[in-house]
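User: Can you fold this complex?
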Amino acid sequence: MNEAQLIVTLALLGGVLSLDVTAAFQVMLSQPIAAGGIAGLVAGDPVTGVAVGGALQLVWIGVVPVGAAPFPDGAVASTVGVGVAVLMGRAGATSGIGVTSGLVAGLLVGAVSQLLTARVRRWNVRLADMAERGAARGDAGSVSRAVGLALLMRMATSTALCAAALALALLLRPASVIEVRGGFPPFLWAGAIAAGAMLASRKGRWLAYCVVGGFAVGVLLAGVA
Amino acid sequence: MTRTGVPTAREMRGIVWRSHYLQAAWNTRSMQGVGFCYALMPLLRRYAGDSERRTEFLKRHVGFFNTNPVFAGYVLGAVAAMEVSGADGAEIERVKKGMSSPLGMSGDALIWGALRPFAGVLAVLLALAGAVWAPVVMLVAYGLPAVAMRARGVAVGLRSGPNGAKEVLGVRVKGAVRILRGAAAFGVGLVLAVGVRSGGNLEVWKVLAAAAFLVLAWAGTRARVPATVMGAAGAAIGLILLAAGLNGGSM
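Assistant: Here's the predicted assembly.
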């Protein structure tokens, strides 16, 4: 796949997966590690897909798609994140830099998707109006139409966001990426930190003890290995 | 048309399938209202000759509704049973309202607040261990129970009415929430340790830095900094450390 084909394919994929966030099924195909893995498979690099998706997944642990509060779209974020990582890789970036760029891009697009979701949900009020007017006439078809149109709208807006973000990334991508010497993958830190904080802050202190306990065990195991 | 008895197996399958679109037209006014009506529409065939009942039915269900989507089946099942047995419209509305908020709270805590982070962290740990198939584990650990609960809710609601929902309310759910959330938090700690470890040799400053990051992040969350901003900040700090070559060793 050349760059343009990659962007179009990933944008369509992002639109479909984004339906799973709340609109349809919610079997968590839209959670970053799943969506990232799928995007990676499609882009021909499943390992990068799982790496970007896994890092984003840690951040998304603190994201709860409940009620009226807007939340970032994990499917769009990870599709774009994987796309950016693959594009960077093609420019010669090491996997550490590629994955980290993908993570940062995914987080930025996630923040934008939050605004977009709020917008779409306000637009949906019009569809609810249509359904309610139809219901008052005994017209069940208008309820089905509202559901179908809402799904189409969601898919179209997510696809557009993915396409725009990936096209921008292609424009901004440096011609060649300077290789930075090794080190720990920063995406792990970023994700784990955000996730741990989210978990710890919501319900009491005992969860923080669990995080610290897991950390201690991990350090001990690593020390032994 | 069929008036009495219970919904048919075909109607039930239709409701379960359509319940997956409960939030398709989620909007800021009626929330899941359109989807709720859509999910119950397989019952409409019963009113084919009675346009007044048909209109009443649609009007009753297209309005405001909101609960946890995975547990919504209990409400759909109970309401379907009442509709089919010809219950009073006002009574149906009362049951809908009464069921939606406890199911919403319980479902949000168990499904979103516990099962999802648990499945996510499990998959991330597997990915770190080198398993490229880790996403499949996430889908199985979360998706199977979620889909099963949607179908079970409809069946139990049809059979036992509003009381059927008691099986997912109360102490047992609270216990499951605690265990799953604790396990997820423990897993996050493990991930952090792997992150520290992967920069070469384990050094005291790395462990201290990880602990400091955790405290910072916790404080940020307390101050309601969004997750995406926190993640971006963490990644930026990591990149700076990487560029500064502070960590020395290779990946």
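The two ends of chain A are 41 Å apart (CA to CA). Chain A has one domain: 3-177.
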